[in-house]
């Protein structure tokens, strides 16, 4: 068989499997014996038979994954991907453009520029001044943003004085990024949050003033629009005002929540994001794209050019055009044109449909909250916010420590049973069950059945 026959055959196999995906488990972990089996497949000089290798991948590798399109997969930030994005991926792998710059792939450069400009407009940035780059994920976007902020505010000698403000709800990629850019823990301020886990603006201001007084250089506040733990949106307008008055960069990590910008009924939740200097926004989360498709948007493109623009001799000819080359906007040189699949999805589905689907996820979390509220032995810990809700098993005869152990056991039992995937997180010392409900495939019936299943799991645990 020719490789192209395998390719054609694979698409049919994929679509056949897709029909059965919802009947399977939301996650399956590779068994020890399968690991051993795979480890025996050393690389041979002669090569192996392609059809048996493909069968190995189909039967013993890919089944063991977090099935992100499963409608009862509520863990992490699920990735329910639209098929159009996968079609975009196929085009991208077949044509394999090197989207490093305009010269190397001028067609995709135009598509990425147009898409980025539209996203900037949605965020409330002036598209003439703003720009951005498609990256592999939110972690990379956070890193690129912190590099740009450091280079704008800190001269080389100042690096030992730079101070950063985040909350204890910031994603851990922010912490990693700060280490990479040379900011140690001693100069990362975890600003106090209110009962709703939002940064307290007064505490932030106080902390900035104190640091300035002691000769340090506060340079960036990193807020979150849709925290991973609880979907919380920090008070963006207040934080933006402080950053403006005190002259600090405001980065909004909207890896999860920035997609709410496309919703008509909930867009107001992100008011103030337009005042940020930079925004992280993951299309492979709530814009239903396959991995790896995320964006970093900056209000002023010169902020990225300052950090990343370089033209070595061998790229001089390729630089002679009026377009900005993506290699000047980030760390990557060779890169796929990640923005094309998003362009294709936005164009084909229409922006309204995407916005409505985002609203649907938010409403589903609210519905989950109403069901949990009516369910005995469950206690809401954080309400539905940007499609995330946290609750826990509660029994007033148990101590907080015992409750934590109980909820961990409960989550294990739920995940092992294979009906739904629900993992725990920790909020103010409490171990809670966390659900993120962004899949358009999930119905209210799925939510009812999932909460009923949790009640059954509670009964099982109580009997043991
Ligand atoms: N920021 C937030 C708020 C997130 O929720 C995540 C991932 O869940 C990230 C950053 C990291 O994004 P990625 O996994 O695309 O690197």
From TrEMBL:
<dbReference type="InterPro" id="IPR015422">
    <property type="entry name" value="PyrdxlP-dep_Trfase_small"/>
</dbReference>
<dbReference type="InterPro" id="IPR002129">
    <property type="entry name" value="PyrdxlP-dep_de-COase"/>
</dbReference>
<keyword id="KW-0663">Pyridoxal phosphate</keyword>
<comment type="similarity">
    <text>Belongs to the group II decarboxylase family.</text>
</comment>
<dbReference type="InterPro" id="IPR010977">
    <property type="entry name" value="Aromatic_deC"/>
</dbReference>
<protein>
    <recommendedName>
        <fullName>Glutamate decarboxylase</fullName>
    </recommendedName>
</protein>
<dbReference type="InterPro" id="IPR015424">
    <property type="entry name" value="PyrdxlP-dep_Trfase"/>
</dbReference>
<feature type="modified residue" description="N6-(pyridoxal phosphate)lysine">
    <location>
        <position position="285"/>
    </location>
</feature>
<dbReference type="Pfam" id="PF00282">
    <property type="entry name" value="Pyridoxal_deC"/>
</dbReference>
<dbReference type="GO" id="GO:0019752">
    <property type="term" value="P:carboxylic acid metabolic process"/>
</dbReference>
<dbReference type="InterPro" id="IPR021115">
    <property type="entry name" value="Pyridoxal-P_BS"/>
</dbReference>
<keyword id="KW-0210">Decarboxylase</keyword>
<dbReference type="GO" id="GO:0004058">
    <property type="term" value="F:aromatic-L-amino-acid decarboxylase activity"/>
</dbReference>
<keyword id="KW-0456">Lyase</keyword>
<dbReference type="InterPro" id="IPR015421">
    <property type="entry name" value="PyrdxlP-dep_Trfase_major"/>
</dbReference>
<dbReference type="GO" id="GO:0030170">
    <property type="term" value="F:pyridoxal phosphate binding"/>
</dbReference>
